[in-house]
Amino acid sequence: MAVEPTLLRFIQLTDIHLDPYYVPNSAPSPSYCHQELSSRKSKPGPSRNSAYFGYPNSPCDSPVQLMNSTLQFMVDSGMADSLDVIFMTGDYTRHDRDNNLPVKKGEPTEQNENVVSFLTSAFNTSRVQVVPAIGNWDVWPHNSLKAGPNDVLDGLYEIWKPFLKGSSKAEKKDIAASFKRGGYHHRELVPGALDVIATNSLYWYSDNPEIPDCVPLSRSLSDYALKKSKEPGDVELQWLVTKLTHIREAGKKVMIVGHIAPTDASGEPSYRKNCYEWYSQISGEFSDVILGQLFGHINQDILTVLVKSAWQRPKAESQYRFMPITSSVLFQERYAFPQWNIVGFYHTSPSIVPVFNPGFRAGSLAITNDGTNQSFIQHYAQYHLDLEAANRQWDREHADPPPRKKPGKARFQNDSEPFQYQVDCHSLEDFGMQRMDPQSVGRLLARMGSSSTKSSTLIRQYKACMTIHSNQVDLIIDETTLFWIMAGVALSFVMGVVGFHLQMRRQRVSSGERDPLLS
């Protein structure tokens, strides 16, 4: 008789970019929402726009009230009580964009402390496990992190220490050692069944000026050069191989979380060349134990698949390639989807900071600890906030403009202004996936790659999820529509050329008629 799996419920919060200097009744330009505009101090009505909860589709960061009310939604909806794990995938500090208000050295530390305070105030963290990862804006200067141990990693460890407990003294000691050495850590989530690895992607990130590329790829994951290297990117890769090997030998599965994904939204590697090749190869070689991977950084909900090449690649290149399913890939490659050998995948998550609409990921892991360990990701769901609607509601309900508050220590207030996140982009309800594994992802892409009308509906829904249902429109153009668009462009070009020649001919005739008069 089959044993019913145990469900492990989680959320992923990423790219909060908390800005204690955010000012309602401001604008993105020129102050990045740091300076109040007198023209916005208007009476309640449809024309007033305080942008109290944040300025959508702008370079402004997250006001404290956006974070507060997001957590308020989780508490009021009962989500906070049912959670088992929170994956925090980095970037808790505001961007350094405002020349009149630069990010100072201690600010990333302060904002990490504020986020920890939010979490401990809103959730029962004695029961809910919190798994943090470091973002490129959580260090100062941003993107820049030297090899550890160092003061930056020591400071971040002390801030997140309440959540870096481990299930035993040995595991707690191992977490402390790896975090202080490199900002990455590993722990057991479900004894005997499921682990989690939080990577420090800054040691592979191409924009980190302090770190060189990794050693060239070798097809042997026990490569001597990798073991011998003392560079932090290589040390982390070797640590990752060791941990994944132990997880496999123990018959367990693992979730991997981090901030910067291997590729960006365009499909270009975010990691340095050799680091990217190594990470791709490791992800492919251990795809039997990796349930899934979660990242942030690009503010969009994008599915990226790990495809194994059908032919032998050069020695210095991995046999595996990460392919983000973006608009261009859907347009150019979708009919080839059924031929792809998909062995793994990862997701980047929507962000709290309103680059699009604020959003977060929730899901459940089905854990089968019965000796065979057939654990799997049961489903993902994206939650998004219609930020413009939330701002309009606040303006209608408040006669006076919001008061300015001095920046300081932030913590969750249980009487925050309520708003509703919407549940959408559900892997089962919207995409018909009974579970999230490479085979199910492959079947989804095959349906997207078909020529049926359902394919267009799936693609349209997927692309709406990518931009978190914001007002930024992403058109879907099928081949028939493209043909008529190109035909129209070609016809316009031809007519333009003909018109040009006719005009030149008239000018020559007119010039010939005038010449005798001028002579």
What's the domain count? 2
Task: Specify Rg, calculated over alpha carbons.
Answer: 26 Å
Q: Given the C-alpha coordinates, what overall shape results?
A: globular
Strand content: 15-25%
- The side-by-side strand order for the widest beta sheet comes to 4-5-6-7-10-8-9
Distance between the termini: 108 Å
The tally of beta strands, per DSSP, is: 13
Structural class: alpha/beta
What composes the largest sheet? 7 strands, mixed
- Report the order of strands and helices: EHHEHEHHEEHHEHEEEHEEEHEHHH
CATH C-level label of the largest domain: Alpha Beta
Average pLDDT level: 86
Q: Could you name the ranges where pLDDT drops below 50 across 5 or more consecutive residues?
A: 40-47, 473-485, 508-519
Helix content: 25-40%
Total of helices: 13
CATH architecture of the largest domain: 4-Layer Sandwich
By CATH, the superfamily of the largest domain comes out as: Metallo-dependent phosphatases
Verbal overview:
This protein is an alpha/beta fold and 519 residues long. It has 2 domains: 6-466, Purple Acid Phosphatase, chain A, domain 2, CATH 3.60.21.10; 487-519. It contains 13 helices and 13 strands. The chain has a 7-stranded mixed β-sheet, sandwiched between helices. The protein has a 6-stranded mixed β-sheet with strand order 3-2-1-11-12-13, with no helix packed on it. β6, α8 and β7 (290-295) form a beta-alpha-beta unit. The chain is globular and about 65 Å long. Residues 40-47, 473-485 and 508-519 have low confidence and may be disordered.
